[in-house]
Amino acid sequence: MASNVNPTVRRRRLGQELRRLREQRGMTAEEVADRLLVSQSKISRLENGRRSISQRDVRDLCGVYEVEDRRVVDSLMQMAKESRQQGWWHAFGDIPYSVYIGLETDAASLRVYEPQVVPGLLQTRPYAEAVVAGALPEATAADIERRVQVRVRRQDRIRETRNPLRLWAVLDESVLRREVGGKHTMAEQLGYLIEMSQQPHVTLQVMPFSMGAHPGVNGQYAILEFPDASDSTVIYLEGVTSDLYLEKANDVQNYSVMYEHLRAQALNPDQTREFIEKVAKEYARG
């Protein structure tokens, strides 16, 4: 990219603005689709930022919405142009979770619950290699390396000195007990977790087995919040073949409340470091 423009975020902001214009006109997505002779699903995808928006799309929609202010039209057209640029992750080819990477790159904070493996932002390279190879048993060595490179590059966000991503992660105890890559790799990985947990912008908590059932038993999820107030909070649910992004206020509220319960029930950060140190020593002893 020639600039710091994030195409994923540009698509989201443009989509939100187009939705606002539609609602101002009192029109449904179906009515707009009928006027433009396109599918309703296309209008929905344009508005939720999951589809690239061309300048022609913007021009046509502004016509339907009778936007007369040329400055508004020009601004939207520029956003459409920027939304079609490529982010750094495009250099690595087809990454199935590229939308998430774009959101993570621009997020101010990330709250995540992980029941199975260490969050990607906190993985050492040997651990990442073992996770990717295990999750994709039919992948070639080149594909594994490409994915690991993307994962390592993503970690730049929490290594930034001026404006790092604020990360809060609650890990199930199974994350520490699952021997990924062998005992040496696990000892190194847990040592890295302890190191990162001492950073002021990183908070780790462990949910021990002894806690029993808890609000995270339904699986992994992440909550992304952004520095611009116009960007809505996103709930991210990772899938095998497709991912789910939730932005409705009710969904965000429900997942946020659930996360507060997780944090309340998990070990506090100091107890978590002691717990991880204990498990790391077990791996180190072999």
UniProtKB/TrEMBL annotation:
Name of the featured protein: Helix-turn-helix transcriptional regulator
Pfam families xref list: DUF5753, HTH_31
Residue ranges constituting the HTH cro/C1-type domain according to the UniProt record: 18-73
TM stretches of this protein: none
SMART domains: HTH_XRE (SM00530)
Domain of life: Bacteria
